[in-house]
Amino acid sequence: MMRGLWGMARNDFRVWLRSPSAIAAALLPALGMGILVAVLTNSVGQQPVALVVQGKGVAATRMANLIKGDREAYLVTEMTPADAERAIGEQRVAAIIVVPAIFDSAVAGATASVDLYLNNVDIDLADDIRRSVTRSIAEFDAPQLGLLGELRGPSEGVLLPNPYRIGIAEHDLRDTNVSFLQYQVIPIVLLIVISIGLLGTSLLTARDFERGTAKMLVLSPVKPSVLVVGRLLGGTLITITLVAPLIALGFLTHHIPYCVEESTAPPWLTILFSGPCGWILPVPSGSHALALVALLIAVTLMTVGLGTLLGVALRDTRLVTMTGLNGSAYLFFLGGGFTTVAFLPHWLQIASRFVPTSYAIEGLRQALFYPDLIGFGRDMLVLSLSAVLSVVLASVMLTRALRRA
Amino acid sequence: MSAWRLFRASAALEAAQLRRARGFVILTALAAVNFLAMVSLFGLTGAYAPVALINLDGGPYARGFIEALNGAHHSFALKYMDSTAARKALHSGRLVGIITIPPGFSRSIESGTTVPIDIRIDNVNIDLTNDVQRALPAAIVAFGHRNNFPGVRVIMAEHDVIPHDTGYIPYLVVSALALDAMVIAGILGAMATAREWERRTVKFLRLSPASASVVLAGKLTVAFAVAATALGITLLAIVFGYGVVPVDPWTTVFALAACVAIFTCMGAWLGAVLKRTLAAVPLMFGLAMPLYVDSGALEPTRFDGEKIWLIAHLSPVYYAVGVLEWSFHELRVTPEPVYVDMLVLLAIALVAATLTLGSLARGGRR
Description:
heterodimer, A: alpha/beta, 4-stranded mixed β-sheet, B: alpha/beta, abc type-2 transporter like fold, 2 domains, 14 helices, 5 strands
């Protein structure tokens, strides 16, 4: 029995490795998403703005320094009015901030203004700049409303009075911030597992029926139940073989010297390593690492079961590919990939409760980014139940289909 | 045989093939709606961070401050809850932060005393953290202005380049149309040519005295028609489902049809190169997202830096987004004029069609 089981699993594994289009179908969309995240990292946070300082006085200089100093918010380039106008027309900057010539005298009369010429092409970008410029201007009269004041002012017991009469005491939940890239890489890990598990197994199953090899399998001296378990084992092996090195690479990139921010490597090396360096996963502690492995195994089993079900139901490799790609995308997005479920409308939040991947993404983020494992038990329970359900259903359906082949 | 009859015969054959692959065509069309839904989900995360508000004051100034928080550039989705529930939600990643208005807030504000507002932020995601850190001073400034507190010397005078703001989702769904056009028309175009290799009919095509360009035109016209229908449904979903109405409907329809035609040609070339539908489909899906995001889909690409903008010129979606955003919202998202975007797309289509014909001819010789 074990020989038959292992033989089926090994055969599936080899067939899959010899199918470049199947590997491409499973990996390319996920890698595409990965590249999307990497590019997206460049788009968040800082916006390019032109600064035109027409005032020559102390107040104008101080205002300009406040804007130039907020490197978290802007990529500031100081320009002449004509250059700034040309730059906004050519979309080299998203906005022009003008500190006018009469700024100092207007400040003395408490009637000063800073002009913002904004390319409000979409509200997300426009609001980002509005918030940032408002903060910079507020800092002029209320220094503690700047980022430093938020983090090191009232929260550390130092409160300066300000004309807005409100200060901000910010307390961050954790010592280190997780980068946008790291935060978004987690769903990509999951998308890879889903794509390989779902598409890999469904293509193998569909191909058996499409090419008639299912009949040969039935005619072999091995019991159908052994073939079924072998197929599920093969799918699991395929997924683990591809996912494990990818995750390991995520931990190993910490040790690539060219990946550190202060790397003095030549630019060509930095560019060469920018891909792998983007793939950095935080190293979890012992219990969190176990939680991570358990979650990944549960998701793998769930997707392998679903893939087998899909293959049995459709029995056509092209249909399976399209359904698998669409299905994976839904599981990914509704589960919280690239989206934060808490941001979604209430009805979508409820819908996402029925998407097992939402528990997987929450669980993975909890295991990798949070000091405790709040909610992990619930996430693991849902994923385990989903895995058991999909594996049992897949076994029943595939056994029945093989008997009728 | 006349060219017209040949064209019709080729189109009829392609239509019959597609009818036989109904499931695949339906799933391809469904992918168009899927992309739209996914882009919308992404758009929903662009604003309104879920933040718990604990109001321990309840006075008039506290209410005023809450109004200012609600009006702070679409920043906060305030959720009123007690501190225990808020802390639990924050620690399990369901909230970005907790804002606490302390007791005696209104009394202190009334007397001119500066009051510290406590905010606990889950700084797990730096993008969300930045948004909250910037939005809070904006709300405080709005609160100060609304109450005409003395001592404020500088204000911001905003001058928008465009008379009205375009919502994030209305912006994103239009760029999603370009992505849809690429994926749907590309897959159907690829299927039309790859099938000739899959079924080994490419040799017959080469041996036939019929003009390969007319045969290809017939096949691609049907692929175009099916893709255009799918895109038409998506367009209707955008207009009636999302309420996003194009400024110039006829220009939008023309621009979309042009994009579909161009991407059908590109898909045909991809199909001729890969020679297998199963290889072309994942490649299209895989290319879709990177090409989409580096195409001005989320904001004009040049704002992301000169390097990314230069790379974007390699993506046909960049030009398609430029054309569609202009026709839908009258927005210029590429520094190049819209007619240049259109001309580049046409040039890409011509090159793709020529290369496809070349591949079909070479395929027959093998």
